[in-house]
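Comment thread on ticket #2218

A.B. wrote:
> Attaching the input chain for the structure job we discussed in standup.
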Amino acid sequence: MAELRVTSTGTIKLFESDDTSSVTIASPASLGDDRTVTLPDANVDLTQVNTMPIANLDIDGGTDIGADIVDADLFIIDDGAGGTNRKTTASRIKTYIGSPSFAGIDDQSSSNDDQLTITDTAVVINEDSDDVDFRVESNGNANMLVVNAGGDRVGIGSDPDLGVGLHIKIADTGASASANADELVIEGTASGGNEGISILSATDGTGQLVFGDSGDNDIGRVYYNHSNNYLALYANGSERMRLISNGTVLVGATATLDMDDTNNGIKFDGANDLVQLSRNNNAAFAIQRTGNNGRVAQFYRETTERGYIEVDGSSTNYVTSSDYRLKENIVDLDNGITRLKQLKPRRFNFIGQEDTRDGFVAHEVTAVPEAVSGEKDAVDENGKVIQQGLDQSKIVPLLTAALQEAVTKIETLEAKVKTLEEA
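C.D. wrote:
> Ran it. Output below, let me know if you need it in another format.
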């Protein structure tokens, strides 16, 4: 057997026996411009290949390895059962892997191993809807993301066990979620924890929590305006309450109210400790008590009650503090008639109203100064009038004292007349 023979046509034959070569390298003269290497129909062991530029390698006549690869070309991997390494054109990747640890990858040959399916339109985990969880570990948490297949929940931070949707769980508090609000559950530490949701916006932007339905996609809102620093509550598509940066609360209005405003609303002025109410053609304020007779409003200075309003079955009582335990230096009121003469009862009408009435002008009630509030001709920093007021009930003690003095004088005169008549 010749190990190497070169024929007259330029063909090289290796390991030739009985005119048959194990390896034949044909020359251009015999086979045209292409040089081909023909291997025998048997196993070929290429133990070492350094650089071997081959345009096409023909294995068993069925595979075109070495040709240009196009986008549609996919490769099938041998599973060790004698399959052929082949380049093909297909619309789906099918992998055949014999290792049992990868049995869940979909080979489309049965309906119970589709834990991972990859197509040209989707990557699907657990396509057969089996009770198979999906879990992602982070550097410090083995349950950073969990899809609990049996419970139909998604968890962050732990295996979810509350709600019907997303459960963000830091620890088990032992609490349960309301069935009316369990699509998103945030569960913190069992004790001493502080949990919440942060909405971060630009300094000139807004942060919003929006409530919608099929008729209106923002029928309700919790809205924070970072430019002007106010928090607003919306109901039925409109702003109903606003808390502004100085502590003022506006109800039914979006701007500071004056009592003569035509807009409905309530203003709780945190800076000036003031409440303003305004409403068109109806009561601006209503208080209702059910059950027994009693108080409907109480008034305090600091922590001491100074008065209250109470109702019974037929009337309303406006009560101010009068307990003797709150008073000292108690003496009888005298000179009632003299002081009474200083009062100037008047008849007048208010500007803009035609009906006249009896009463007093506040700054003229010098005989009972405690009945007057405010100062004459006072204005605020903007030149707006600060009205004086008068609590007419505080004049009653003077009227009573003057009447008692008058009664005493009358009784004295009556006694003298009687004595004269008897004489």
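A.B. wrote:
> Thanks. Noting for the ticket: The first helix runs from residue 28 to 31.
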